[in-house]
Each structure stands twice: as structure tokens, then as C-alpha cells.
TrEMBL record:
SMART domains: HTH_XRE. This is Transcriptional regulator. Coiled coil: none annotated. Pfam families: HTH_31, MLTR_LBD. It comes from Streptomyces cacaoi. Residues 4-76 form the HTH cro/C1-type domain. The gene is mmyB.
Amino acid sequence: MRDFLRSRRARLSPQDVGLPPTRRRRTPGLRREEVATLAGVGLTWYTWLEQGRPISVTAGILAAVGEALRLDGDELAHLYRLAGHVPPAPDADTGGTEPGVPGQVAALADEWAPNPAYVLDRYWRCVYANAPVELLLGKAAPLRSCLEGFERGPDAERVLPEWESMAPSLVAQFRADAARHPDDAEFARIVGRLSRRSESFARLWAEQEVRDSGLGEKVFQVPDGRLVFERTALQLGDRPDLRIVLLRPKPGTGTRERLARRAEARPG
């Protein structure tokens, strides 16, 4: 904490933050009292913060200090972590033809072929999928959300035979994600809609179970058998509103061979 805040002070001049220029200083950068004034906190308190003393620090004060020091998003998140706080989640970027999906992430999903890969936003809506995903679900049943099985009802078992056993884990993981964004009303709207449409979801949500894991299995039902995949969900460090889900055929299940046959039989 001490080294980080000192380094951020040292790179700023009074003119950088709208203060009048002063005579030549013995050390470069802003003085502690100037940072304290800009942040609206006491000099003694800021000094203790910079010294890394065990004082009580609120997220609001950290934000004020970050603004005074002109911290960018990565630096502010680092300050929050140094102080033992969870960094604020950045707003999702929804621009572009594929909402919020950087080209490098879409390319990674495509390069994962012939194995399936897709990208989810923070609400678990699918915002990008590679061609092998279509092989699993078909054009008539595109992947819209990892929670849509609750809205499909009995039809979910047709494509996802393990749906009934998967559902509790899905709801528990969705609760963990919702807790990361307590001020995002969209999570409450999703929970309300699914609770009205699915007795199963309402019951599972009421159980208050929570789970946070990016590893697991996913099983699909296809005409020639079951496809069993190992699932790995990776969150992007600079885009925490997105995660890419990579499905790898589970060894010993014949999934890789069945997937290859389906790809060969695909028209065109």
C-alpha cells in the first residue's frame, strides 16, 4: 500500500490535478496534504492509509483517493485489493455486432473447434458460439442462456439428459455471480422471471445454496448417443462481465469420435 500510493503521488504535479503551481519541490509529485485535500479526507488519516496502518477504510473513501490520484481502472482495482476490498465491477461494453465480445475472444472460441466453445455475459446469456455448438443443439434450438432449461421445462431433458442433476449446481453458481453485482437490478429481474415460469427454479433459489466453480461436466443427447464434455469456464481479467466456456471431450466416452462423425455429416 505504502509503495503503491507513494508512486502514484510521485507521478503527478499540482497542475495535473488543477492546483496552482508552486515553487520547486525537494521531491517530485503531490504532497500528502494535497492528496488528502483533493480526496476530502484528513491528513492524518491519509498518512496512516499510505503507511499501511490497520485502519478502517470504506469503498467510498478508496474511490475518492483513487480519483484524487487519477488512477485508471486497473490501478483502482489494485488499490481496492490492497485495502482488502472487492474491486467495483466495470460496466459491460455492449457495442459492436456481437455485443461486448472482443474479436480476440471470438477468435479463441472459433480456434477451439472442432470442440464446442461459447461466450457468456454476466447474466449467463450466450453472446457468441462457435460452429460446433450448432452441431450439438441444431439451428432450431440455438443456445440463448445457460438457464434456459428452466424455461424449456421437460424439453430440456431431450438435449441435456443430466439437466435435473445439473440444475441445483447451476442455480447455486448463478447466486454466487449475482452476489458479485448487488446493485445490478437485472439479476433480480432474471430471478423473478424464472421463478414465475419454473417451479423448479423457484424451489432451488429458495434453498440459498451457493457454489463458485468454473470446472465441471456437460452432457448432450444426440441421435447416436451421449456426448460428455469436461467444462472449463474462464473469466477475462480485463472484461469480468464475460467468460468463455470451453468444452473438451471427456476421454473414454467416445465423445470425440461421435463429434467428428457429426461434423463430417454436416452439409457443406
